[in-house]
Amino acid sequence: xxxxAIIVGIVALAWLAWWWFSARNRPSxxxxxxxxxxxxxxxxxxxxxxxxxxLLQLFETAKEATSVKVPFVSSSGETEHIWAELxxxxxxxxxxxxxxxxxxxxxxxxxxxxxxxxxxxxWVITKDPDHYVGGYSMLVMFQRGREQWGGLPPELxxxxxxxxxx
Length: 166
Prior knowledge:
Blueprint lengths: L1 H20 L17 H12 L1 H8 L6 E8 L5 E12 L2 E6 L13 E5 L5 E7 L2 E4 L1 H14 L4 H7 L2 E2 L2
């Protein structure tokens, strides 16, 4: 009986170690490869830039629900496109709090930063949990996801349905 208990214990520990170091760390969705110069992404950035006046108008009544995507040059010299909470606008400067950590950056990184209004690559305002305004690059990502994966997982298809252009 004790031999069986020991074997069961070893198998359970092996499974737990596998889950802890491998299975739990896998992303919910496969990585999505989209080049910076992808024509749809270039168009999405253009639309987001052109709609900045609308963003600023909506921001006045949605300060806690506004996010912007801005470029960030990491410690490795890579330019990443990360999301940040828009905190305030002062003329042509925006004050943000980074909400997505850069992948290629090492070392400490403060979350509060200042960018130029012209740095905004995309923006999203959450009107309510089921209605987002903006998100031009997100719509491209959903489209490219369908193309690369042969369809969207149900959770992403549901998320996509919440986006409305400005």
